[in-house]
Structure formats: structure tokens, C-alpha cells
Write a structure and sequence with these properties.
With 463 residues, the chain is an alpha/beta fold. 31% of the residues lie in helices and 20% in strands. The two termini are 34 Å apart.
Length: 463
């Protein structure tokens, strides 16, 4: 397991930036879909805003400046919806986003800047406009694709629905993975974009709905195509067994997100309970924790700033924890500038490019924390050790070799006097954001008086 992690060091060392393509930036007006919504208007389940690959490409310098070195794109293959989880053609970039040749140019622009690319693979289901499904609609029992789907009766009917779907959505017919032709088709898709275009990984949608045997084959074939390919499964529950069994390299760490919200925002956990839950989660994850995707928000959740409400300082403490904890941080586009939004589709608003409307404090924080994470290996690959947990105060240490970093957060109302043993031979602890701030250990203890609500520190130990 650890050898596999080392083989994909690029992922462990990364900070991932998630982009919902239609909502990031419109860089090519010539490929705009009809009835385009004005940028900045309210998103709905059906409207389009014209974001495309060229638009993302024009903003790469912004992402490099932020410190991003990996982009995860929501689906980009030809589809009928704005979210594109309904794949019409697995081999064609959606024309509203660009062409296949433009995608090749896009990847080159990323790689020239040292940015990796993870695509969203939707292999549980496809679109009802996919040519295979349309063939079943047109030819019924004579269709050579009849067994590519689970059809209960013919002819195909939407009301009543007489074929298996994803989540009961008529436009998302479920693929039949018991059919070897379906399996081979999807394996070919997975390796095609690795070999022919040089993508760096796949984020795999709803993998629990697909037999594990398929994913084992998918891993084997993608490894042959690209040994450094990073595979991450989308799971809403604790799912480390998929990593331990060698199926995926990482999974989405929604359980961690729930704990962060419970401690830093809802206050339903005190520091002692939070510490216990964090250690319990890490014990289940084991070494898989290093390759999990630690996210605060995504296209399926309310914006993290909306969840925290007016308490930006509480959110700041949560971001500090996310960026210094074990695992790979993911930033959902716009979270770094304090964008708000409720449940889907409101969380999929267009990116705000007027920097006068940005939350500059949050943006600067993200930039600084990403920089610190990149400079210090202990924050990416080091061990995790809780040092203190009481009231709303929590402190932990990350360490690799001789490098030791202590992180302290206090999101609650209590003003606390801190006396914690760093369990280290370091005698001085220096703030990584403000090096002029230094603390000396006294009789083996790190002592900080009057640590107030929303105070936080990231300290590097020095002999």
C-alpha cells in the first residue's frame, strides 16, 4: 500500500482544484449553447452559462498563483445537461466546451505549468441519448445493444419506467456490467484518455453501484496505460476498504467533512469528542488517509461559506485544519474567494471574476496555506499526533523525520490558557505565517496565555 502511495507522490503532494466547467469562465463565444444565461444570473438545473475549456485555459495563471497543481473537472464528454453526468459519447468532448483537438491543447497548457488533470468518469450509467440506448429504443429485441442495459419490457417506456436507471432518472439508463461487451467498452474509454491525451487520473462517479470486479479490471488496465494514474472513488460514507483492497488510490472523504462542520460550525462536537472521532477515522483509514480527498464543499453540497454563515473566522479555522490534516485538500472553485450558495443547483453559481467582490481575507489565507503545505513535507506525508483537546481548543502535531509542525485552533467561545507538551526536543516554535512570532518551551511545555476564540497558529519547531 505505501509503495503504491509513493508511486503516486504527485497526488499526495497536490492541492486539487475542482471546476464545474459550464460555470468557471467563458473563453470561446463561438461554442456557446443556445439560450445562454447571462453570467452571474441564478443557476437552475437546466440553464447554461457558456463556461468552456478555453475559459479555464485563460485562467491558468490565476490557478498557478493560488498554488494549484491539479485540476479535477466535472464531466466534459458530450452530454445533454449542464452537469454532463449523462454521457452521450465517451470519445467526444462536449462541443459547448471545445473540440478534442482543443482538449489536447488544454492538457499541454496544464502540463507546461506543472498542473495535473483528473477527469470525471461516469461508468455506472450513460445518457438516454447515447447511441447504444437509442438503438434499443429503435430496434427493441433486435438491437445488438439490448443486453447493454437492464430492460424489463419492450418497447422502452418512460412512464411507467421499464428499464434500470441511476436514481430513478429516466435520462440516465444504467449500464449492464454483467455484459463483457459493456465492460470492455468502458475499459477502452478509461485507457483511451490516458494513452491518447495524457490525462493524469480519474474521479469515478458512484462506484458502489458498479461491481467491484469491474473496478479491479479498470485499475489493472489503467495502470498498464499509465502507471502513475491516480484513481479516486466518490463515496459519501467511510470507504477506505476500497483503497486497502487495491481498487482505488483514494476516495472522497465526506466523513471528515462532516466532522469538520460539526466541530468548527455546528458546535455539536467539543474538542475532546472531535479528537476522538478524528483518531477513530484515521485508525480505520490507516495509510489510506494520505490519499483521501479532503473536501469542504463540492458541486453536490451547499457552499462551505453558506454553511458557516456570517462566522468567517470559524470558517478560517476550518480551512486551516483542512490544509494541515492528513490527506489531499480539494478546493471547490470559488470557495477560495468566499463564494456562497445553497444546495444544488445554487452551489453551482458562475465564478466571480470581479476581485472587488472577493473575500480577500479568505483568498489570501488559501494562498498562504497552500504555500506552507507545499514547503513542508510533514504536512503532506507526516504522522499525525493529537497534543491537546479541551473545550473548543484542539492542537496536533505533524512530523516527518526532523521536521515537526504544531497546529493549534480554537473555534469556540472559550478563552484558554494553553500548556501542552510538544513531545519534542525542539526548544523554539516559530509561526510559519508570521516568523516574528516565536514561543519558547518551558520545562518541556509550550505555553500560550489567553488563546482567544478563532485564534490559530501553525508553528515550526526549531532546536
Amino acid at each position: 500500500m505505501m509503495k503504491d502511495i509513493q508511486n503516486r507522490n504527485w497526488a499526495v503532494d497536490s492541492v486539487i482544484y475542482q471546476i464545474f466547467p459550464d460555470r468557471f469562465c467563458n473563453g470561446d463565444l463561438s461554442n456557446d449553447p443556445p439560450h445562454l444565461e447571462s453570467w452571474g444570473n441564478k443557476p437552475t438545473t437546466d440553464n447554461f452559462f457558456g463556461g468552456d475549456l478555453k475559459g479555464i485555459q485563460t485562467k491558468l495563471d490565476y490557478l498557478v498563483d493560488l498554488g494549484i497543481d491539479c485540476i479535477y473537472l466535472n464531466p466534459i464528454f458530450k452530454a445533454a445537461t449542464n452537469h454532463r453526468y449523462d454521457t452521450v459519447d465517451y470519445y467526444q468532448i462536449d462541443p459547448a466546451l471545445g473540440s478534442n483537438s482543443e482538449f489536447k491543447e488544454f492538457i499541454k497548457a496544464l502540463h507546461d505549468r506543472g498542473i495535473k488533470l483528473i477527469l470525471d468518469g461516469v461508468f455506472n450509467h450513460c445518457s438516454n441519448q447515447n447511441s447504444a440506448f437509442l438503438d434499443v429504443v429503435d430496434h427493441g429485441k433486435n438491437s445488438k445493444f439490448l443486453d447493454w442495459f437492464t430492460i424489463n419490457s419492450l418497447p422502452i417506456s418512460v412512464n411507467p419506467l421499464n428499464y434500470a436507471t441511476c436514481g430513478g432518472c429516466f435520462y440516465l439508463p444504467k449500464l449492464n456490467h454483467a455484459n463483457p461487451q459493456v465492460v470492455q467498452c468502458l475499459l477502452d474509454v478509461g485507457t483511451f484518455w490516458l494513452r491518447e491525451y495524457g490525462i493524469d487520473g480519474w474521479r469515478l462517479d458512484t462506484p458502489q453501484r458498479v461491481p467491484k470486479d469491474f473496478w479491479k479490471k479498470f485499475r489493472h488496465e489503467t495502470r498498464k496505460a499509465s502507471p502513475d494514474c491516480y484513481l479516486v472513488g466518490e463515496f459519501w460514507r467511510e470507504s477506505s476498504e476500497w483503497v486497502r483492497e487495491g481498487i482505488f488510490d483514494g476516495c472522497t472523504n465526506y466523513p471528515l467533512r462532516e466532522l469538520i462542520i460539526a466541530f468548527f460550525s455546528e458546535r455539536s462536537l467539543d474538542a475532546e469528542d472531535f479528537s476522538y472521532e478524528i483518531e477513530s477515522l484515521l485508525s480505520r483509514l490507516d495509510s489510506a488517509g494520505y490519499t483521501m480527498i479532503n473536501l469542504l464543499g463540492c458541486h453536490d453540497t451547499p457552499r462551505i461559506r453558506t454553511i458557516f454563515g456570517a462566522e468567517d473566522q470559524d470558517l478560517i479555522s476550518a480551512i486551516v485544519f483542512q490544509m494541515t490534516f492528513i490527506g489531499i485538500p480539494l478546493v471547490y472553485y470559488g470557495d477560495e474567494i468566499g463564494m456562497t450558495g445553497g444546495r444544488d443547483p445554487d452551489c453551482r453559481r458562475t465564478m466571480e471574476w470581479d476581485d472587488s467582490k472577493w473575500n480577500k481575507q479568505i483568498h489570501t489565507l488559501y494562498k498562504n496555506l497552500i504555500g506552507i503545505r507545499k514547503q513542508h513535507q510533514s504536512l503532506r506525508k507526516g504522522s499525525f499526533q493529537p497534543l491537546a483537546a479541551f473545550d473548543s481548543f484542539f492542537a496536533f502535531k505533524r512530523q516527518i523525520g526532523n521536521e515537526e509542525i504544531i497546529v493549534l485552533v480554537n473555534p469556540g467561545p472559550a478563552v484558554v490558557d494553553i500548556r501542552i507538551p510538544p513531545q519534542s526536543d525542539k526548544s523554539e516554535w516559530i509561526s510559519l505565517l508570521s516568523p516574528e512570532i516565536k514561543y519558547q518551551t518551558e520545562d518541556g511545555y509550550l505555553i500560550l496565555d489567553r488563546f482567544k476564540r478563532n485564534d490559530w497558529l501553525i508553528l515550526l519547531g526549531k532546536l
